[in-house]
Amino acid sequence: MGEETGFRIGIWPGGAIPVPALSTPDVRLLNGELIQFGTYYYMTEEENRPDDSVRTLGLAHLADRLYTDGFKPGAPRRVVLPEQFYLWEIGGLRLDDPEEVLRFTQKWGVLGEPGLSEIAIPMFDTELLDPSRKPAHLAHLDLFKEMGNLVAHHLRPGEQWDFRKFVHVREIAVHAALIRDLTRVWDAVSGGGSLEAVRRDWESHWLQPPPTTELAQGFLVDMLSHALRPFHVQLFLTRNGRITYGRWSPTLFAATCLQLANDIAQEQPYRRCLKCGRLFVSQRGRAKYGQFRKEGDIKYCSSACAKAQAQRDLYRRQVNARKLHAQGLDAEDIAERLSANLESVRRWIGKGEAE
Fold it and tell me: What are the extents of the domains in the chain?
């Protein structure tokens, strides 16, 4: 548990904000390392092409870029994120597997805007506490250069690295790792985990973890406030009742950060699954689809983990019953010692003798 700083993280306007549905573009994997994606703009079902309003706004190069190399993307899809998306889908994503990253992107969308525009420059001055640590703003610059070098030779003439229709799988990994690190930091400053655990499990290679609770709080404020910028009053253009220009849907990264911010606003404590070690707020899978169990003494993140642990515990009880029977105890004594049903103990013993 982190030390008491006297500061408490607050959120405006207060309380949880509903996470809106997202517009998810069609994607494909190129060369095992690039994910090319279609437009977020409306595309007609008849022609499977961008609406003409895109061209009339001088954005024809966006439409032309979509149909290179034989890629003709389908229309964007509407996606609703499940609860705890940042803990489950992002928390369980294998970032070193391009095919898994592609499947994730196909289902949920592109995590992170090209150009790292959604990742804030951390303002906490860690070098003041330890001169050997690289200042956070220089670490951000190094990441900018690293990602730029990955995509530079893939850019076409006149195409900008922060305004393109593809991302490198490592760019997605950087954004996913940051969300997972933000989760670890919140777990530490809220009292569930520790800064030692944050340092041990830290994944954002470009940035060192905040060394104190106060700087960890500042890290959360810097990163999440920046990522949540899309949630404000906006203007957009429509044509024939359809939105054709303007950000009418937040990005996947912003929506994911909003889920985390909502849990912070509600001071939701994390639980740690006794079976797999996953951090979770509510249990998945025991209630009907789309619902989550939050009340009671919940020890497991999902019904699958609960069932697996129950099976493991049952196997141990059966083994213990057979050992006790081999030592000369009868079924009644075994049932009393193991606090088990007598008929169950007899079945366990009988099964062992049959084997």
Answer: 22-269, 304-354
